[in-house]
Amino acid sequence: MSKRHLTRRQNWRIQKIQDERTERASRRAEKAEQTLIGGDLGEEREGLVIAHFGVQVDVEALDGGDAGEVRRCHLRANLPALVTGDRVVWRADNAGSGVIVAQLPRQSELCRPDMRGQLKPVAANVDQLVIVFAVEPTPYTNLIDRYLVAAEQHGLQPLLLLNKADLLRAPEHDWLQQWLADYAALGYRTLRLSADRGEGLEPLHEALKDHVSVFVGQSGVGKSSLINALLPGVDLRVGALSESTGKGTHTTTTARLFHFPVGGDLIDSPGIREFGLSHISQDDLLEGFIEFRPHLGRCRFRDCRHLHEPGCALLQALQNGEISQRRMDSYRHILSSLA
Ligand SMILES: Nc1nc2c(ncn2[C@@H]2O[C@H](COP(=O)(O)OP(=O)(O)OP(=O)(O)O)[C@@H](O)[C@H]2O)c(=O)[nH]1
Ligand SMILES: [Zn+2]
């Protein structure tokens, strides 16, 4: 059929048919809900939300004989908005699906501003932020520091991971090795490995066990390569799904939760990989530089900006070598970007 322009009347009729279809579908869903609730529902059980598609959610059973199996569940009305990583109470039906009846309390929340700039949770119960950087593209210290501050802000354990270690050359990359050593000296956990060659993955497996992690970092540092090495056989593009709504069909990308074969969970989506600093005050930023903490509140002036004020405790610490020039520059750079 050739492409043609539709008249206004034709457009109106198509829209009307679509609207009627949508309404019939939602009436059917309501009816199904009514027969389900109070009908043939199984007992209340615990589950884990591993993916979210608007009105439906994939729940993995956490207890019972079918623990580990996944069911597409409907949401009972009046539930708060659920996100991937949420723990829930659900009940199975006879048709291989189920109904979520309650959300269990969250240990933590990862939030991002939505299109209107309002903070919205995108994942729950994450506890580790794996900050990936690489020999190439050349890393920026203030980007790494931004992620470290974001980790502090959200109560996540940071793990600094230098990928593409196979490209490290001396003396060309000595500065990068020094960075890693500096971060380790501050108390951060650091790893060096090569995702493409599968070298040095063992300590990463260890660090991921018993955690729910997200991977962040600049484009091209090898996040996909790493995740593919850790999750052989998983196609990450499955995150993009078509979802039917009353306003027509559009593609959404949902965060998904994966289990690493050797232990630990990953929550991943393109949106989560862009997770970073948001809505942060200067005080939060200062707190996010962990070596600044012992010096905070000790400046002569209460509104000290730590630039050239006399009696500034941070500048004194900088002079004494307790704070590095690189981290101080990075702090100032991030501060100026917040304003
Ligand atoms: N030499 C080397 N190259 C690597 C390594 N890991 C990944 N690469 C390469 O780096 C490039 C980017 O890798 P990706 O995994 O797509 O990076 P990404 O961080 O997922 O990038 P985005 O999808 O843009 O966010 C690819 O060409 C990989 O083959 C490594 O350990 N060593
Ligand atoms: Zn000061």
Q: How would the blueprint of this fold be written?
A:
Blueprint: H1 8-36, E1 45-53, E2 56-61, E3 70-75, E4 87-92, E5 98-103, E6 109-113, E7 119-124, E8 128-134, H2 141-154, E9 157-163, H3 174-186, E10 189-192, H4 202-208, E11 212-216, H5 223-230, E12 240-245, E13 248-253, E14 256-259, E15 265-268, H6 270-273, H7 282-288, H8 313-319, H9 325-338
Parallel strand pairs: 3-5, 8-9, 8-11, 9-10, 11-15
Antiparallel strand pairs: 1-2, 1-4, 2-3, 4-5, 6-7, 12-13, 14-15
Bound molecules: guanosine-5'-triphosphate and zinc ion.
Guanosine-5'-triphosphate (GTP) is lined by residues 163-164, 166-167, 194-197, 219-225.
Quick structural summary:
Its EC number is 3.6.1.-. With 339 residues, the protein is an alpha/beta fold.
